[in-house]
Amino acid sequence: MACKAQGALFRERFGNRERSMEPKDRIIVALDTSDRGTALRWAEQLAGSVGAAKVGLELVNAAGLGVLDDLRDAGCGRIFYDAKLHDIPNTVAGACRPIGRRGLWMTNVHACGGARMIKAAADALAEGASDAGCDAPLLVAVTLLTSLSPLEATEELLLNLPPADYVPAMARLARNAGAQGVVASPREIEAIRWACGSDFLIVTPGVRPAWTDAGDQRRTATPAEAVRMGADYLVIGRPITGAANPAEAAARIADEIAQG
Ligand code: C5P
């Protein structure tokens, strides 16, 4: 299919998604720090300006899991616990049950743990949530770390498919095993959208507004480009947390998304 025709077909099939959410609610701010006080300050500054906050192992390993509750109470929106679990199904289930009890919005596992592991995670999150009487977090799967180059993927990990084919295949596996979405680089959004349809969530890091520095991110897209390509949520860290006024930076990004 010619590129242009494919683009038009893509918009026809998936284009309405773009208008169904407030631009600010697409922003997941990455609270990348090991300092609890800094994370809480960012959360307070960003209350009402972003849809969610992503908390990773750096902060949780330094400050303990309780920091997730503190951040939720700070009012910066929903919490995505970037747990990136990858182990045997029984162990992942054991790790997911307490996560499910915390009333979080989203968490994740590595898709390469396989279908049984992903299903064990989804079931255990639901069990934990049901014990606690809260909603289970959305489960998203990391398809292939974007830090890996295509050469590393084939020569070190011995993947016999290039990332462009491997990633949508892993997304399909994750969807069939019970995940609600994937984490994927801007480069992979369209292929995943084609492979998994319109109601599968795509969470995209590596997003850089036109007015900021790319830093160490390589395969970047602007917020508007990522949403046009079919991303649901954008994980954005330093362009917001490194700004003199984080709430103003988030508002500028939301404007950029709204302009399309
Ligand atoms: O500061 P910056 O916007 O680059 O932060 C991006 C966030 O997304 C970081 O928390 C990083 O760990 C995360 N991430 C990423 N690439 C991935 C997966 C997660 O940059 N493939």
Overview of the molecule:
- With 260 residues, the chain is of the alpha/beta class.
- The chain has a single domain, classed as TIM Barrel, CATH 3.20.20.70.
- Helices cover 47% and strands 15% of the residues.
- The protein contains 12 helices and 8 strands.
- It has helices at residues 3-14, 36-46, 57-63, 66-73, 89-100, 115-132, 150-155, 163-176, 189-196, 223-229, 238-241, 246-259, and strands at 27-30, 52-56, 78-85, 106-110, 138-142, 181-183, 201-204, 233-236.
- Strands 1-2-3-4-5-6-7-8 form an 8-stranded parallel beta barrel, surrounded by 8 helices.
- Helix 2 links the parallel strand 1 (27-30) and strand 2 (52-56).
- Helix 5 runs parallel beside helix 6, helix 8 (163-176) crosses helix 9 (189-196) and helix 10 (223-229) packs across helix 12.
- The two termini are 25 Å apart.
- It binds cytidine-5'-monophosphate.
- Cytidine-5'-monophosphate binds at residues 30, 32, 56, 145-146, 183, 205-206, 217, 235-238.
Give a topology summary.
Blueprint: H1 3-14, E1 27-30, H2 36-46, E2 52-56, H3 57-63, H4 66-73, E3 78-85, H5 89-100, E4 106-110, H6 115-132, E5 138-142, H7 150-155, H8 163-176, E6 181-183, H9 189-196, E7 201-204, H10 223-229, E8 233-236, H11 238-241, H12 246-259
Parallel strand pairs: 1-2, 1-8, 2-3, 3-4, 4-5, 5-6, 6-7, 7-8
Helix pairs in contact: 5-6, 8-9, 10-12
This protein binds cytidine-5'-monophosphate (C5P).
